[in-house]
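Bug #2210: C-alpha cell dump truncated for Dynein regulation protein LC7?
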Amino acid sequence: MIQQRQNFDWVLKELYDGVPGIEMIVVLSSDGLRIARYAGEPDAADRVSAACAGMQSLATAIAQEMECVEGDMNLIMIEMDGGYFYMMSAGANAYLAVLSDVCCEPGRMSASMRDLVVRIGAHLTSPPRRNGQTV
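Reproduced locally. Full output below:
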C-alpha cells in the first residue's frame, strides 16, 4: 500500500525526465486523494486528483455500456488546446495522471506511463475508504 509519506518522487522524476513536455504527474487514489506528485503546485495536484475521481467513474460507466468491453478503465486521454491530459489505472484503487504540453507525443507518453505502471504498479495501491477511514 502506498501511503503519502512514502517517497515516489524519484520514480515520477524518471517519467518526467524521460518524456519531454510533462507539466505535472500525480498518483492518486480512486476516491480522488493525492498520493504523490512530481512538478506542478501541490494545490493544483489536489484539484487534478479530485477531478480524476470523476473521470474514472465516468469512464467506468461508459465502458459498462459497451458489450465488447470487459474490465476496468485502462487509459483516458484528453486533447485540449495547448496540451494533453492522461490518466491510467496504476494498481488496485490507484491511478497515474499526467498533464503535458502540446510538444508531448501521445504514443510515447502512454507507452512510458504503461512501463512505469508495470514496474511499480503492485506498489501503487490504495485501500478502500469509508467515511475518510481505511477499511
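Output looks complete on our side. The mean pLDDT is 84. Marking as cannot-reproduce; reopen if the truncation happens again.
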